[in-house]
TrEMBL record:
Domain CusB-like beta-barrel: 251-315
NCBIfam families per UniProt: RND_mfp (TIGR01730)
UniProt protein name: Efflux RND transporter periplasmic adaptor subunit
Region (Disordered): 35-56, 351-381
Compositionally biased tracts (Basic and acidic residues): 35-55
Example GO BP: plasma membrane copper ion transport
Originating species: Pedobacter hiemivivus
Lineage: Bacteria, Pseudomonadati, Bacteroidota, Sphingobacteriia, Sphingobacteriales
SUPFAM superfamilies reported for this sequence: HlyD-like secretion proteins
Amino acid sequence: MNATSYIKRNIAVLICSAFIMTAINSCGDTTKKTEATTEAAHDHGAEGHEEHSEALELSQEQMNAVGIVIGNIEQKNLTAVVKASGQLAVPPQNAAQINVLTGGIIRKINVIEGQRVSKGQVLVTIENQDLIRLQQDYLTAKSGFSFIEAEYNRQQQLKAADAGTGKAHQQAEANYNAERAKLKALERQLQQYGISISRIASGNITSQVPVTAPINGTIGKISAETGSYAQPGVSIMDIVDNSKIHADLIVFEKDLSKIKVGQKVDFRLTNQKNEQIEGQIYGINKSFENDSKGVVVHAVIKKPGANLIPGMYVTGLIGVGTETTSAVPIDAVVRSEGKEFIFVVDESAKAAHEEEHGHTHKGEAEEKHKEEDAKDQNSVHFKKVEVTTGVSEQGYIQITPIEKLPTDVKIVTKGAFYLQSKSSGPAEHSH
């Protein structure tokens, strides 16, 4: 082979190699573009899925299954109210601080916190050695009084027979009155300590005295322990009788003229469920409370329950007349994080959803999306709207939406609790 042929053959080999490398690179770029296009389409679908994952959407079948009913905000003639806040309290005569009249060692505590007790029931037993001396003084005074009483009776007889002297009679009468007063004072003191006079007279002297409950009620905090020293004037426990619990509401000056004794009050406990408590105004203070331009209005609770505790914050709705107002069924209102909401049909969200899914598809994908679009036609979108509530009567409750709603807006009148649980939980795509 000559040199010219050898050079031509090498050039041909190089040209073929260049074509092969170009073809391989072209295929690689096409594969990458295809993968990128597929990944972008997948990301777009995922993004669209995530975009609608926050939407609260139910099909007609789902609504029928859980019993969701759609209706309108109605106009009802309900009681006009004045809204007032306050606290639960008990009258002073229904609360007691347990103190001891004399200091001593606590030998026995007969009750526990939260226990129901009756008036006169022994709560604590106190031991004090000074009580022995008091009982001895009583026995001595009682014995001496017997002699003085006999002498006084003898002088009375002599005076009646004009046989005695006036001076002796006067002395006997003075001694009798003084010793009787001393004896009565000792008896009264022993009775206050809870020591039986008849037991002392029979020779049963004790160093322990009982501390009894002054009222019926429930034991609160016990601040003493067995073996500790109880001092006079220092409370060892407290008792509260919630049977007479009432509410102290603050009514401001602008609403004060509407409030009258005897008006009905509906109470709601703060941070509680929609449980309502009925009451009635029985007293109105005649002075402002702490320069706040608010007056304390007292309302008695008709049927106080065991779960009512003094100090609880309440909201009172005082009925002052009637008015036509927007109202919905009580079941239409749900609570979440201390706020109240209703669910309205969101037509704008449905229109946007239909517009987004209005594009055409090819082949099997087109048939699949047609089925999904048919389902979308039967689905309903919901939006949660915050409201403030007022009086509730005959199964309806007054509402005032925070945001303005259309006059013909549709709302969920039954089954709102299911929507609340669905909106509070993880997002779920309706498709």
